């Protein structure tokens, strides 16, 4: 009896300590029905039980879980955000954590030499994944190449303003003209700087698209140059805008064509392929210049600006059509996002996989990924996955569904369309991109049936995962037999945000 009274007294005075760390609270069986309150973050509370009746009432609204799940989002700049998935009823909250990069004594010299460089500068100047994505001599070469280019452009700028005459008036006029010309070229160079630094990772995925866009933008730049004849007083503005557009076009053209050249060099003879391409280019240049001279030497043509504009527009349209045809005949046997969509849609709907020749013919060079159906957004955060209500329950349910996968796919029903969002986990690969694409296309093709049955979203996510598990190996087998190169892939994992599970979920 004395022991029971002491035990009851302890239970009455029981206080729940709420800790901000993962903590396991064991259940205690007693003669009274009493369960400890659930833990919450950043609160310290004590509650005294007045009676077993009040305790039982409170038990109906409290669920005790022994293990707290922690999910971490890791960002490309080294920071991370930690989520505590403990309370299903509370909104999802994240705690941002700064993480200072520490030099690794075992890392190569390139990584050691760039530890002090801010991440923003690294992302702008170096290739994605630097230094692991390039050879060891890359940084040394670029450090010598940079001052080499500086001195070369110094000579170019000085040469423009030199040999302009001996009189002060002639020298001043020539210097002003030189400054205007160098300024025009400098503005154009900013376009190349922006393209190379901001969009450098795009060209490997879809060189045909960006090579075509380069010609569109370059045509706009030539139009501004042509307009200088109409507005000579605005020469600097129009010429600078034209140079900027043509520089952006060059920034898109050169990297894209290098990828195409690498595609041609199947024997490792990239240098020879590039040299022979110059032969074709120079031959075409000489013929084009000769025909152009014949046109402008036509009597009365140069004085008629409307006729010149019409002739230029006609030739430019033919040029763009020929460019499209030249890119359409390319046959890549590697899988990028556009070709993956074509392959997966064919397998989901008809259980067949087209060969790379047919797939390249069906590939739309001009369309952007964001305008393709279904719309799939890669690299979303957990807050976006949780929805507008920031539901912890939804995040936990999705983590449980995708326990065996390296990604989390969700769907949002819009007005007349469906949008898919994909979050990738740490160590995800291009194979996981194919898996989530297959699942998304199966859901998209079976969306009408899901709306008729009015089943829950979680049910259809599980169903689509099951279908993907049963048929994905067949998809890979048919890719191999159709002649696709599975050893190389241009399906990249967005490294700006990845999910890391630090504890055992639910």
From TrEMBL:
Start and end residues of each Protein root UVB sensitive/RUS domain: 115-350
Q: Where is the Root UVB sensitive protein C-terminal domain?
A: 357-492
The UniProt family comment states:
Belongs to the RUS1 family.
Q: How is this protein named in the record?
A: Protein root UVB sensitive 5
């Amino acid at each position: 009896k004395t022991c029971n009274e002491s035990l009851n007294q302890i239970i009455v005075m029981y206080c729940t300590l709420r800790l901000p760390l993962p903590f396991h609270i064991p259940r205690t069986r007693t003669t009274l029905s009493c369960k400890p309150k659930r833990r919450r973050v950043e609160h310290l509370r004590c509650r005294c039980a007045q009676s077993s009746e009040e305790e039982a009432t409170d038990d109906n609204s409290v669920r005790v879980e022994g293990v707290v799940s922690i999910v971490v989002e890791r960002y490309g700049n080294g920071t991370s955000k930690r989520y505590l998935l403990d309370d299903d009823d509370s909104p999802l909250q994240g705690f941002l954590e700064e993480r200072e990069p520490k030099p690794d004594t075992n890392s190569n010299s390139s990584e050691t030499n760039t530890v002090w460089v801010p991440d923003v500068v690294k992302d702008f100047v170096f290739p994605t994944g630097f230094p692991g994505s390039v050879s060891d001599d890359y940084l040394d070469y670029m450090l010598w190449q940079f001052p080499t280019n500086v001195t070369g452009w110094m000579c170019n700028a000085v040469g423009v303003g030199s040999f302009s005459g001996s009189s002060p008036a002639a020298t001043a006029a020539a210097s002003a003209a030189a400054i205007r010309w160098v300024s025009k070229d400098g503005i154009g160079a900013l376009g190349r700087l922006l393209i190379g630094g901001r969009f450098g990772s795009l060209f490997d995925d879809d060189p045909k698209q960006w090579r075509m866009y380069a010609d569109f933008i370059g045509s706009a730049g030539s139009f501004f140059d042509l307009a200088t004849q109409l507005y000579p007083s605005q020469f600097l503005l129009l010429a600078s805008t034209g140079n900027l557009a043509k520089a952006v076009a060059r920034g898109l053209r050169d990297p894209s064509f290098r990828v195409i050249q690498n595609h041609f060099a199947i024997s490792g003879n990239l240098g020879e392929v590039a040299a022979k391409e110059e032969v074709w280019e120079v031959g075409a240049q000489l013929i084009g210049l000769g025909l152009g001279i014949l046109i402008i030497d036509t009597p009365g043509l140069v004085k008629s600006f409307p006729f010149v504009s019409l002739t230029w527009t006609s030739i430019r349209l033919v040029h763009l059509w020929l460019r499209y045809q030249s890119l359409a005949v390319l046959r890549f046997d590697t899988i990028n996002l556009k070709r993956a969509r074509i392959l997966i849609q064919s397998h989901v709907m008809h259980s067949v996989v087209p060969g790379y020749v047919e797939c390249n013919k069906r590939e739309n060079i001009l369309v952007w990924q964001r305008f393709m159906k279904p719309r799939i957004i890669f690299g979303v955060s957990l807050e976006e996955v949780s929805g507008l209500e920031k539901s912890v329950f939804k995040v936990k349910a999705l983590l449980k569904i995708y326990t065996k996968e390296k990604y989390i796919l969700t769907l949002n029903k819009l007005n007349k369309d469906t949008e898919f969002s994909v979050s990738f986990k740490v160590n995800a690969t291009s194979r996981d991109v194919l898996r989530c694409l297959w699942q998304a296309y199966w859901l998209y093709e079976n969306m009408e049936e899901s709306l008729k049955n009015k089943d829950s979203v979680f049910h259809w996510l599980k169903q689509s995962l099951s279908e993907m598990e049963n048929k994905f190996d067949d998809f890979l087998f048919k890719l191999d037999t159709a002649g696709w190169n599975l050893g190389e892939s241009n399906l990249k994992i967005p490294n700006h945000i990845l999910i890391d599970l630090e504890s055992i979920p639910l």
